[in-house]
Amino acid sequence: MKLYDISAVREAVLPLLIHHGLPPADAAEITDHLIEAELRGVTTHGLVRLIGYLKRFKCGILNTRPVIKKATAAGAVALLDGDCGSGQVVG
After folding, report:
1. Is the Cα torsion angle 11, 36, 32, 15 positive or negative in sign?
2. Structure pTM?
3. What values do phi and psi take at 67, rounded to 5?
4. Nearest CA-CA partner of 50 in 19, 4, 81
5. Closest CA to 33 of 51, 22, 47
6. What is the DSSP letter of 21?
């Protein structure tokens, strides 16, 4: 098993997401979640997802700048319209 420096991975992933049109804060959110999944050993939700995300951002399936709105709310529960944004950002 290879070991990688987390900051080096972050420095490699973050600019890729920004290059694909994400605001820096949203790109950082996604990057941090992918790295966190790897560190927790949940590799199915880690960096393996990056290429798929980049493809979806490039072709417009995922919105790089979603306008998130509250659709409905009832007590402590709300339904959000995520405007096809990534789960990490919308969540």
Report:
1. positive
2. 0.89
3. -105, 105
4. 19
5. 47
6. T
